[in-house]
Design a protein that fits this description.
Layout (H helix, E strand, L loop, with lengths): L1 E2 L18 E9 H8 L5 E4 L5 E2 L2 E4 L3 E7 L10 H10 L8 E16 L2 H5 L9 H9 L6 E18 L10 E9 L4 E2 L3 H14 L9
Parallel strand pairs: 2-6
Antiparallel strand pairs: 1-5, 2-9, 3-8, 4-5, 6-7, 7-8, 8-10
Amino acid sequence: MFSADGPGSAIVLPASAGYADRVRTAFKEWAIVADALGRGEQIIVLRKGGISEQGGGFQVDHPEFLIFPTHYHQQRESVLPAAQARYDTLAPAFPSPERLRLEWFARVVDWRRLDSRQAALRLAGQHIWREEVIAERFDWGREKAIHALALRMHRLPAPVELPMLESYGGCKSWVQLAVDVDVGGARPVLGESDFQARLAAFRRALDAEPVPFA
């Protein structure tokens, strides 16, 4: 587990921490957003809840995880028109409800808790969600805030298909898979310069100073 000191702070992974070659933790995200992350179209995940918030403030329990695509149809209407067209192209090839297809592995590079809707909306152009969807997420619930994670995405050498278990269901962000998945050989979806440019844009939009994340 690793955490930031407060709103707007960046996560810093301890220098001694390493990355495993096999991962069991998965993070649920809409299939169309998973596709955008996996193609390098965006590096951002915006999440209201489901990521652990405990006594010490917001904490990201897992600095690395697999992306678990979810297939709710209503996600189509919640993204920008170009992403809607992309969804229509992808949907016929989605796996059956009984199967889970894993294609991407992510590492958290930066994290911000956004305490104003304006801060969240400054990320427009860096993701495929419609503006009103971001506003709704921000305003939902008692806590008026949203969490933005910047991810370094990697594509697995080959897709991994697993049975879809009942335990994976429900409205939650984190899932512990029944088996470890080998992520050795996963390759970044963006080159270093392209990724750093997107990360810098993320930080500039939030008026945050760049903070190294080893």
